[in-house]
Design a protein that fits this description.
The chain is an alpha/beta fold. The chain has 2 domains: 1-46 and 68-85 and 376-479, Aspartate Aminotransferase, domain 1, CATH 3.90.1150; 101-356, Aspartate Aminotransferase, domain 2. The protein has 14 helices and 11 strands. The protein has helices at 3-23, 53-64, 86-98, 109-125, 148-170, 176-180, 193-202, 219-231, 254-263, 301-304, 319-326, 359-393, 417-430, 457-479; strands at residues 141-145, 183-188, 205-209, 235-242, 267-271, 296-299, 312-316, 398-400, 408-413, 436-440, 443-449. The strands form 2 sheets. A 7-stranded mixed β-sheet has the order 1-7-6-5-4-2-3, sandwiched between helices. Helix 4 (109-125) runs parallel beside helix 12 and helix 5 crosses helix 7. The longest helix is centred in the last third of the chain and has 35 residues, at 359-393. The structure holds pyridoxal-5'-phosphate. Pyridoxal-5'-phosphate binds at residues 80, 147-149, 192, 194, 242, 245-246, 271, 273-274, 300, 312. Pyridoxal-5'-phosphate (PLP) binds at residues 80, 147-149, 192, 194, 242, 245-246, 271, 273-274, 300, 312. Pathway: Catecholamine biosynthesis; dopamine biosynthesis; dopamine from L-tyrosine: step 2/2. Keywords: Catecholamine biosynthesis, Decarboxylase, Lyase, Pyridoxal phosphate. GO terms for molecular function: 5-hydroxy-L-tryptophan decarboxylase activity; enzyme binding; L-dopa decarboxylase activity; pyridoxal phosphate binding.
Length: 480
């Protein structure tokens, strides 16, 4: 494909994308295909001879689209939102064109420097404490990770290195193996599975702290575990607090947990993967109170801030804790500016070497929407979830299962788990809308997450009417 062909196809692709997004509501939100559907539809090997662009696009509609779950349909209420906006897609195209691998400052100075500035912009939107910003000439700063899972893992590994070095400095005879055996990390029993995985990958014990009646981690439960483990000779070193849990969007009490972490020399990492975007609104900023106690903080603009995947924003108070933990400088990656102390080599802040020019997406989105536009977007989603909540509350057959703070409503039919499993199956088999469940303690619960950029009140009303009809059918069939 040469440049003139690219110009033509590029314009066609933009039209295809705009048509797709505009028309996505008309597509069935969840596909009809069975596992393995695709292989028989395409050749077993790559073509020997070139094919045409038309043929590929025909196959996109014929083979790919029938197997797509349409996350951007206004009838999609599953998981959490994944962000999508036109300026982000355009910036991604530019990112592909520049195609640099920004592992060091020298590898593409703009790639590094725009990221640092965008992370400061975003940090200021959230009113993060100065200590997390790079521009203050302090020791903090932000980095874009690929996912919240990576951010948690990076924080855990950095904390592990930090505590190991401290202990070895005090007692040089201690081996790393002897220390690792005793390290213990904590998160609430509501934390995302990626936290448990970080513990597995990092080779340290991770203990679940029982959450309270509002699914929040509290000081007393953490303190209890801590005392027990210290008495058993273990070394507590790392705590993950979640702001906006995946199951029900509950909030750990960071104002309580934070001071304990500081006092006990435990690294506090805050995972606000979903909820973090809402903190750009002054009325939700209080949910972030206590972040001043954290060593690292992370959320996903690729969930709820209109920046397409992948873009996970992570800040640390002391960048040396990251760069000091992971630094290696082979000669082929060295460059003449690196020891000046003025520049950032982001490869030391993350697991992979390679990294895309992801900050372009933030820059485009922040400028096209403005902070006010982004705030309005968050508020609209919260408004829609409140609307859904009040519909549920008006039907005495249903109950709300957790406090609705942002864009997620957890609800169920009053009755058995089996009944609710049957309701969810009916909903997802009808394929008019798409939901996923969660467990809250021993209850099977349906999650209704406001997801699409184009979702409106009418979609919420329709979805609720549909759910009620299916519930009525289900309750009647049970009686017969
Ligand atoms: C979605 C979610 C994650 C995982 O995010 P990735 O970026 O896909 O790793 C982690 N924690 C919480 C609380 C989440 O909601």
């Amino acid at each position: 494909m040469n440049a003139s062909e690219f110009r033509k196809r590029g314009k066609e692709m933009v039209d295809y994308v705009a048509d797709y997004i505009e028309g996505v509501e008309k597509r069935q939100v969840y596909p009809d295909v069975e596992p393995g559907y695709l292989r028989p539809l395409i050749p077993a090997t790559a073509p020997q001879d070139p094919e045409t662009f038309e043929d590929i696009m025909t196959d996109v509609e014929k083979i790919i689209m029938p197997g797509v779950t349409h996350w951007h349909s206004p009838n999609f209420f599953a998981y959490f939102p994944t962000a999508s906006s036109y300026p982000a897609m355009l910036a991604d195209m530019l990112c592909g064109a520049i195609g640099c691998i920004g592992f060091s400052w020298a590898a593409s100075p703009a790639c590094t420097e725009l990221e640092t500035v965008m992370m400061d912009w975003l940090g200021k939107m959230l009113e993060l404490p100065e200590a997390f910003l790079a521009g203050s000439n302090g020791e903090g700063g932000g980095v874009i990770q690929g996912s919240a899972s990576e951010a948690t893992l990076v924080a855990l590994l950095a904390a592990r290195t930090k505590v190991t070095r401290q202990l070895q400095a005090a007692s040089p005879e201690l081996t790393q193996a002897a220390i690792m055996e005793k390290l213990v990390a904590y998160s609430s029993d509501q934390a995302h599975s990626s936290v448990e995985r970080a513990g597995l990958i990092g080779g340290v014990k991770l203990k679940a702290i029982p959450s309270d009646g509002k699914f929040a981690m509290r000081a007393s439960a953490l303190q209890e575990a801590l005392e027990r483990d210290k008495a058993a000779g273990l070394i507590p070193f790392f705590v993950v607090a979640t702001l906006g849990t995946t199951s029900c969007c509950s909030f750990d009490n960071v104002l309580e947990v934070g001071p304990i972490c500081n006092r006990e020399n435990m690294w506090l990492h805050i995972d606000a993967a979903y909820a973090g975007s809402a903190f750009i609104c002054p009325e939700f900023r209080h949910l972030l109170n206590g972040v001043e106690f954290a060593d690292s903080f992370n959320f996903n603009p690729h969930k709820w801030l209109l920046v397409n995947f992948d873009c996970s924003a992570m800040w640390v108070k002391n960048r040396n804790n990251l760069t000091g933990a992971f630094k290696l400088d082979p000669v082929y990656l060295k460059h003449s500016h690196q020891d000046s102390g003025l520049i950032t080599d982001y490869r030391h802040w993350q697991l992979p070497l390679g990294r895309r020019f992801r900050s372009l997406k933030m820059w485009f989105v922040f400028r096209i929407y403005g902070v006010k536009g982004l705030q309005a977007y968050i508020r609209k989603h919260v408004q829609l979830s409140r609307e859904f909540e009040s519909l549920v509350r008006q039907d005495p057959r249903f109950e709300i299962c957790a406090e609705v703070t942002l864009g997620l409503v957890c609800f169920r039919l009053k009755g058995s788990n089996k009944l609710n499993e049957a309701l969810l199956e009916k909903i997802n088999n009808a394929k008019k809308i798409h939901l996923v469940p969660c467990h809250l303690r021993d209850k099977f619960v349906l999650r209704f997450a406001i997801c699409s950029r184009s979702v409106e009140s009418a979609h919420i009303q329709h979805a609720w009417k549909h759910i009620r009809e299916l519930a009525t059918q289900l309750l009647q069939s049970g009686k017969e």
